[in-house]
Amino acid sequence: MGPFDLTGRVAIVTGSSRGIGRATAELFGSLGAKVVVSSRSTEACEPVAEAIRAAGGEAHVVACNISRRHEVEALVAGTRDRFGPADILVCNAAVNPYYGPMAGISDEAFDKIMGSNVRSNLWLCNLAIPEMAARGGGSVVIVSSIAGLRGSEVIGAYGISKAADFALARNLALEWGPHGVRVNCIAPGLVKTDFAKALWDDEAALARRNAGTPLRRIGEPHEIAPVAAFLASQAASFITGQVIVADGGVTIA
Question: Domain tally for the chain?
Answer without folding.
Answer: 1
